[in-house]
């Protein structure tokens, strides 16, 4: 077995991993103990990366180029030459007829820095348009804007190590325990080492992160600015600001002082729905602590005033001098593995390489000279929402989408799907062919993915890590930078710029791209001229800036109080409370908040391939307060219709006290691959921040009503049995059926041997659909199938037993037994003792069998029921962990274990 050092491909923590592999197969993964971001730890997602790269996942990999010349036909496999020549000719024709702004490119924070650099040069240098944006626009652009407004550059000042040195940690708009679990492990370590450390969590929901807080400020959605302005008001009133620091190192304080004068704690209390005393306490802790660190993510960024959310929080750091010191400063938590690297090379429609601004003529001239072109276009490109609006209107004719899934991740999904259908040409460069966006592709270009790529990424703390491929590309897949370079050369010929394209894109390997990118940073704020591939490989990950001649990078910025602004001073930004894009009304009375699940990531194109990652939350669920359920005469588990101004969806309700009455929560991961309809983001408005152009994906106003449909359908198929299907291939065959139901979910259950689970509800199921479903599940052979039918009540059931194991089930019209049947299939237990009950309408397993309940610890497969039984019997958390190992690996479940322990009474017998 061989081992290769690389990084995780999920959140922006940038965890180091060691990939274990044999031949062309990845066989395992573990945390890299030498990597300074994680020191060997991995979350549930990272620790199962190898399971998303197993041989069975080839069923949904893009393995060869595919092309169609008419929308009504299916794509056919073609050669790389045929695919790229076709696209080059089509792009060239559109550019000649309509100009370069008639084409656009949309990329991702999962691209490597080298990939990003080539695309940026292709679009802005060769084609001559700034229509290059990425899904980083959806997650980090407001953080970028906030940094630039206040500090002068897109450069997070603090580092992860500051967590261990802070005395007051503020986590705002982030369920760090779920979204950045390894960072949260560092928080837990820091608090254990320093029990006096204060933790303030600012979040509308009582998340696992909030459960751990000394002070949880459960503000109303979108009221952060009022809170931070009020905290600054308190600091001024109580004399807690640092006037010496303000006078020496900042400007604009008098203007912000006038503004926050009106934001009394009483006023903010009314706006935010908070206790006045809690606002005062937060202000005192923030200002008075020897060192205060803030960490924040989408709960600040994803609003139509996200830039000012960020600026208002940074204002507090500037007013109190809590920046540029050990344990102090603002630290945005990046949502993707290389969103930072993409920003470094100008991978947004308003940026240029090395943190240069498109609006600056000198910056444009510098980049033009670097690239050897006459000029770089001045006109800003289309940002993400604008790009798809332009596709819909016909202003943009062709779009190239690389390594992202806008048909799931963008807001206003109805518009996005209409835009992709309207476009003259849709090119999708993707590793996984089953994504929602791939269905719209006229040309599908197979790309490499995690474990196969070679280059660099930059994490949230400005740390650059070498990424190495462990296995060869499957099929005909190519690296993203290779595809872009090949296309650029062909497009150059088609546009009569063949010699220029050859000069601009001479790259034979990613290191040559890196070296050019490195030189572009010389004398810039992110200068990395002192780094090389060889150094990163020998000395490990390094933080920028790391200029030529330096021996190390900078752990924290602005120690000297000098900022990259014209005056050298940081700027206070006047921010005012604003209303969310949508406000609750009589028609839409509930706040809908979106966020992440612990074990899923983004649109689930990768995590959705791993059965155990569904075990914590198995299907799309709308978390609702008990009062809101009761008011609508609903109960836990009922199906509900969620109506928003932009669309509707049908999901199952989950009773939860993590949200206030008047609020509900929906995970953002679910798309058309996993449910009927277009997914969670169908409900989200497309209004965006005027400064960052980041859309308000965090909040919408909705109504929730009971969904009533008479006919129930549950169908399941186990894998790993003789004749059983590849689960991913089976899910692909079942996905077209989802659109035929007003409610449906398609997920996985189990662990080593996945069970495909389809749930649906409608008024009536056509016999032809049932027959199609039975064929897909292997239930169409009467000699191998147990059957029950009651035509009067429209009930029809099938079950298949191979050997002594239940391998497939279809329950139509009544599905009371579905939960325990799923449990039986997942456990792979003998069906012989319950054979006579397989089609019976009973909710509990017979013969004394007990269901396990949901899995809390995915690492060691420890269920909720087992944990609760242990706590009721008087077992301590330490003893439980020693016996079952739950919570001792990645630690993601530890907050939930503590909550369960605190909420579980010990039985009298145990006492």
Automatic annotation (TrEMBL):
Every 4Fe-4S Mo/W bis-MGD-type domain range: 1-57
Keywords: 4Fe-4S, Iron, Iron-sulfur, Metal-binding, Molybdenum, Nitrate assimilation, Oxidoreductase
Superkingdom of the source species: Bacteria
One MF annotation (Gene Ontology) recorded for this entry: 4 iron, 4 sulfur cluster binding
The protein's required cofactors: Mo-bis(molybdopterin guanine dinucleotide); [4Fe-4S] cluster
CC terms in the record's Gene Ontology section: membrane; oxidoreductase complex
A biological-process GO annotation: nitrate assimilation
Xref: Gene3D superfamilies: 2.40.40.20, 3.40.50.740, ADC-like domains, BFD-like [2Fe-2S]-binding domain, Dimethylsulfoxide Reductase, domain 2
PANTHER family attached to this UniProt entry: NADPH-FE(3+) OXIDOREDUCTASE SUBUNIT ALPHA, RESPIRATORY NITRATE REDUCTASE
Family, similarity comment: Belongs to the prokaryotic molybdopterin-containing oxidoreductase family. NasA/NapA/NarB subfamily.
Name of this chain's protein: Nitrate reductase
